[in-house]
Sequence to fold (213 residues):
Amino acid sequence: MTQILAEFIAPTFPALALAHFMALLSPGPDFFLVLGHAARRGLRGAVFICLGIALGNALYIALAISGWSFIRQWPWLYRCLELAGAGYLLWVGWALVRSGRQPANFHLGEAAPLAAGRQLLTGLASALLNPKNAIFYLTLMTTIMGSAASLKQQLFAGAWMAGLVFAWDAGLAAAIGHPAVRSLLSRRLTLIETLAGACLMILAGLLVAVPLL
Fold:
């Protein structure tokens, strides 16, 4: 059993898992996106958003494993990604602000959730257009895992991180979307959605004003 675990788990995996988990605790665009949708529509309205976010993270992890590091040599490409992400966050943030103006009625059932495909694309775009993800996973895989890790160990670490992203976001959506929690939030739903949207718009502004590379 120990030999099998060693085949899939690199010695540096605990450090990588801890660094990744600490990053999850820091609210970012994905957090506010899930918060804004789960507060009004419950878990059904956000679960495929969570899946899309996890798939976007998985893609960046796969690129990091494959040695995709040319983005560091081409700052203009990274800047284009930043601007595209800023535009997307601005659009999603404004949509949440507009949604916050609509009255909530929890006694008549949930607000109609977005279609699964639209949720998936919304989450996927949020993850792919967040330029910090590209550098974050590239840094984790190169500085913590290192070149000594085997492909199996890298794939295991990548699957762990992508799975944890989905579990974390889905758990957050489930907690916020629980009927008891939503009933407590009902009087503040407009404020919650407006603040979530405003935070996304502020993050968009920061991406434009403060380049990461």
Q: What stands out?
A: The radius of gyration is 18 Å. The mean pLDDT is 78. Residues 151-177 form the longest helix (27 residues). The CA atoms of residues 69 and 138 lie 7 Å apart.
